[in-house]
Write a structure and sequence with these properties.
Length: 297
């Protein structure tokens, strides 16, 4: 597979708050790939300068090579892989709808099961994942991958709930970290890791959840109504979110600061590039990128 840059579209960027009055960006959004069914789970490797992302219904994982400027198949079948991240050691941690698990790819290519069950019952369909500085793996487990055979394998929930889980670095078992969400989806830590931001797709909310001594408290909704999905932070602690209209940037108080309109709903996003100021966006069928003047966390 060799898919060079196909096109570009005008950058539909609107600054909505004076706090971002100096925000700069390229005049056009690049289109790197446009043959997906539902693109998700972008994770950028600075070491290889590649972006790994999922086409979930097609059951394949793709890789965009930033230097060669091409997209190739990374893995197929891909066990209906969804969200992923690189941990502090540079290992790829991936949520698998198909196997209802979270796995880690070691440096030698072998695979370690991070999470596959809770209290002896199978997980639903792990969706998004972050790794804290102490090595603990936090992930959301909604039912999207077991509702139909489109993004996984249709099955009843063995747990009977959609939870936020944590697998602590010094423990073998998965713990339920929060039951406060109907369909927890995207998640990201604040810069000091005192807050876990969580999207609830059923309620269409973005919430801030305090983390004290490793325990999550009660969530506080900071924004709602945008069609939230995946989220990431920049180095100033602002929250960047995939929405039904594209991408929006929010202050920690929930104020929308910037919007980036796209022709498709944006499922997820991440920062990449040599200076970590390229915003990569997986939006329904297409992979987009926009060079911006801020830097990802």
């Amino acid at each position: 597979m060799n898919a060079p840059v196909l096109a570009s579209i005008p950058a539909d960027v609107v600054v909505k708050d004076a706090r971002m009055s100096g925000f700069g960006h390229d005049p056009r959004v690049r289109v790197h790939f446009d043959s997906g069914r539902w693109l998700e789970g972008p994770a950028y490797s600075a070491q290889s300068r590649t972006l790994i992302f999922s086409d979930i219904p097609s059951d394949r994982t793709l890789r965009y090579d930033e230097v060669a400027d091409r997209v190739d198949v990374f893995e197929e079948p891909a066990r209906f892989a969804n969200g992923r991240t690189f941990d502090g050691c540079g290992r790829l941690v991936t949520c698998l709808h198909g196997e209802r698990s979270v796995v880690r790819r070691e440096h030698d290519g072998s695979e370690t099961l991070v999470a596959g069950a809770y209290q002896g019952r199978r997980l639903n369909s792990p969706n998004d994942v972050v790794v804290s500085r102490d090595g603990s793996v936090w992930f959301t487990d909604p039912t999207f991958g077991i509702l139909t055979d489109y993004e996984g394998h249709r099955s009843p929930s063995a747990i009977g709930a959609s939870l936020v889980f944590v697998r602590r670095a010094d423990e073998q078992d998965v713990r339920a970290a929060s039951a406060a969400f109907e369909q927890p989806n995207g998640l990201a830590f604040s810069l000091d890791e005192r807050i876990l931001y969580v999207v609830d797709s059923a309620k269409n909310t973005l919430s801030a959840v305090p983390l004290v001594d490793g325990v999550l408290g009660e969530p506080s909704v900071i924004a709602s109504g945008y069609g939230f999905d995946g989220i990431r932070l920049d180095r100033e602690g602002r929250i960047w979110a995939g929405t039904r209209d594209g991408v929006s940037c929010f202050a920690p108080d929930g104020t929308e600061l910037v919007s980036i309109g796209l022709p498709e709903k944006a499922a997820n996003l991440t920062f990449g590039g040599i200076r970590r100021n390229t915003l990569y966006i997986t939006a329904t069928t297409s992979l987009y990128s926009l060079r911006v003047s801020i830097v990802g966390a």
